[in-house]
Structures are given as C-alpha cells and as structure tokens.
Design a protein that fits this description.
Elements: H1 18-23, H2 29-75, E1 83-87, H3 94-101, H4 114-122, E2 127-135, E3 139-146, E4 149-155, E5 158-163, E6 168-171, H5 174-179, E7 182-184, H6 200-211, H7 214-217, E8 220-224, E9 232-235, E10 240-242, H8 249-262, E11 267-271, E12 279-282
Helix pairs in contact: 3-4
C-alpha cells in the first residue's frame, strides 16, 4: 500500500528563511550612510582612547623625569652658596651675623637649613627680625632688623640698654650711656639681656620715651620712674615734666613744649598728666 504525504515539502528541498532573505537584501542609501557614520564614530572614539592612554603615559614620564631631576639637583653641588650678604646691620657687624648664621659649608640655594639659620641669628638680643632669601646663582641674603634702644637703665653698678617694648638688649657701653636718657629710681629690678622686663614702672617709662614727640625727646636727659603715676622726665636744663601713664603722649608732648616755650628760663616743673589741665611751677 503506498502512502503519500500531502502538503509536505519534497525531501531535500529547503524552505526559504525570511530573516536570511532580509539580511541579504541590499542596503538603502540612507542605511549605508548611517552605517558609515557609525563606523566613523567608532574609529574616532578608538583614536581618542588611544590618545588618552598616550597622554597619561607622557604625564607619568614627565613627572618621573622632574622628580628624578629634582633629586639629582638637591643632592648635587649645583647653586653652591659662595657669598652671604648681610643687610640691615647697625650695631652688629656683617661678620658677627655670618658667625651667628653658621651656614653649613655644603649648603646650596636648593638645600640649606633656613629655619635653623633664622633661629640662630634671631637668638642675639640685638636682632628684632630676620629673614633669609636666595640670590641666584650663588648668594644668600640675610636681612635683619635691629632693636633700637630708647634709654639706659641703671641698676647698681650695671647699666642696660632697653628698647620701647621693655626688651633688655645688652649692657650699655660708655657712649650709649651718654647719648641716651637714663632711667632711674625704678624699684626691684632684675634685668638680663635677652629678656623683657616685668617691671610695670620701667615698662611705662620706656613707652613714654618711645611715644613722646622727637622734639620733646631731644630735650630729655633722664627719667625718674618710681611708680607709673610718678613717671617724670627731667630735661637737660633741669625742668621736671611729670608725665605719668604712657597715654595721650602727643597731647602731653605738645602741652609740655608749649609751656617750655612760653616760660623759657622761668619754669621748673610742668605736670601734664592731664593734658587738658596742665599745671606748671616757675621760679619764686
């Protein structure tokens, strides 16, 4: 008996695949253009990625080169310090400052102990400020600001230079003792170079000397400072000027100078503790 399968394809004959037919269909012009644009974008993106990697590598190499060069220069004798300039000295000499600085023999402008040099120079009582700078190619500059004494404090057999902040600078030599006003009558002093006084009357007296006008200061020969309120200037002509606390010093200076000018040769005492009510006493 022969059985025939109706509706089935002949054996060996492939049924056409709709998807295959679709993929082999020629692209339209619009599709070709879109495909070309995608390929171009992919190519540019790949190029950017490659250039980013190259840039990273170049930066790493450059940083490594700079670090290596810095290490070599830091450890070498390049920019060796051959000169040490000293600026701002008046009492101290340049050679004294160089000895204080004690710059190491192997120091260079790239490698030197700036903090240590500054600290050593600043330790001298005459030095109020100090800065260290480089002067390429082979010099270091040390600039200092010296303390300016305003008076000489007598304590028994010793005399001390003191500035307007009450800082004791050094023992006074004969020339300074003559050119600066002397400060006397201060009780309980224990002075030492390199320290600021803790005496309130002495601290007030030096503020007075530092704060009065230059015109009045030029007339002052000495200061008596047993107390703050009793602080008194004595002029070179023997006139006492009671100043008291170191406040309103411009007004007090103007008041004292006015009386000295109006009563020249006749006044012996001027009290300017209240500059609005100046009291003077003349010869009897």
């Amino acid at each position: 008996m022969e059985i025939t399968a109706v509706g089935h394809a002949r054996r060996g004959t492939a049924v056409p695949d709709a998807q295959h037919q679709k993929s082999t269909r020629p692209l339209t012009p619009a599709q070709s253009q879109a495909q070309a644009r995608r390929a171009d974008r992919d190519k540019r993106a790949a190029a950017r990625r490659r250039w980013a990697v190259v840039r990273i590598v170049l930066v790493v190499l450059a940083v490594a080169a700079v670090i290596a060069a810095g290490v070599v220069i830091y450890g070498s004798s390049l920019f060796a310090i051959k000169r040490i300039e000293v600026v701002g000295t008046s009492h101290l000499t340049a050679e004294e400052v160089r000895k204080l600085a004690a710059v190491p023999a192997d120091a260079t402008l790239i490698r030197f102990p700036a903090d240590s040099i500054t600290a050593r120079v600043a330790a001298d009582p005459w030095v109020a400020s100090v800065s260290v700078t480089r002067v390429f190619p082979d010099a270091m500059r040390i600039r200092i600001g010296e303390r300016a004494p305003v008076g000489v404090v007598k304590t028994g057999a010793a005399s001390w230079l003191i500035d307007g902040s009450g800082f004791v600078i050094a023992q006074a030599v004969a020339t300074a003792a003559v050119s600066l006003p002397s400060i006397r009558d201060v009780p309980g002093l224990d002075l030492k170079a390199g320290r600021r006084t803790t005496s309130e009357p002495l601290g007030n007296a030096v503020k007075v000397l530092a704060g009065i006008t230059p015109a009045l200061g030029a007339l002052v020969g000495s200061v008596s400072a047993p107390t703050i309120d009793g602080t008194t200037l004595l002029t070179k002509e023997g006139v006492e000027i009671v100043v008291g606390e170191a406040v309103s010093l411009d007004a007090k200076s103007r008041g004292a100078l006015g009386v000295l000018s109006a009563q020249h040769g006749r006044v012996v005492s001027i009290d300017v503790r209240d500059p609005d009510r100046i009291v003077s006493r003349g010869l009897q």
